[in-house]
């Protein structure tokens, strides 16, 4: 039974508490999954399995879903099936490749060995997708290793300077339509960061949480991101004609790349991942 003070604190952080009989694993898993489905508009409907409940004491769950509305949408009529290659240029599959021609912040960053483009979401430019595409022949791991020597502010500073020096770049932009789901048990990651005692039955001190001695058994997290043509304005206003017309820079994400969803006010990475296994979504 959670203490009332803890319940009040949890509400301040928009955290939901579910009291359940863990001996009824199927029923409890259903209750948790129903709550998650309600909170994510049924985008994420299955976060835990009955096996996650069995022999558990306290479970922390987290689910997050992102499908932004582009400031300028891609025209679905321009989406075509195209090949997707590995970093060496060998075809490894096909994707539904979206296309738009518009002005975007863009730069070739030598320290990254990559091309970088920023695609804004929404009317107020509070969120954007940053795509870092390794140069041909450069592996995704190598590029990301380069990125770890920099900061996100460094990348945005290069984009800003490039824009100030050359103006807005008109880009022929090609990116795959995709949806990625990731499920993780964060226990090992937290333990790597020296958050250990809370997972120990003998060492955990959660006396501010419950009058009954308890400890955290699992930390289950699921993230889902969907990238489609949809935007904040009618698709009829987007540029058309699939192709690389004269005068535009070509940015073609047809090989492994890194993507990040950025909250622009604080330059915080809300989502991030690698796209390297092509799917026809």
From TrEMBL:
Keywords: Protease inhibitor, Serine protease inhibitor. The keyword Transmembrane does not apply. Belongs to the serpin family. This is Serine protease inhibitor 4. It comes from Danaus plexippus plexippus. PANTHER family: GH21475P-RELATED, SERINE PROTEASE INHIBITOR, SERPIN. It comes from the Eukaryota. Gene3D superfamilies: Alpha-1-antitrypsin, domain 1, Antithrombin, subunit I, domain 2. The lineage of its organism: Eukaryota, Metazoa, Ecdysozoa, Arthropoda, Hexapoda. Residues 3-278 form the Serpin domain. One of its GO terms (cellular component) is extracellular space. The keyword DNA damage does not apply. One of its GO terms (molecular function) is serine-type endopeptidase inhibitor activity.
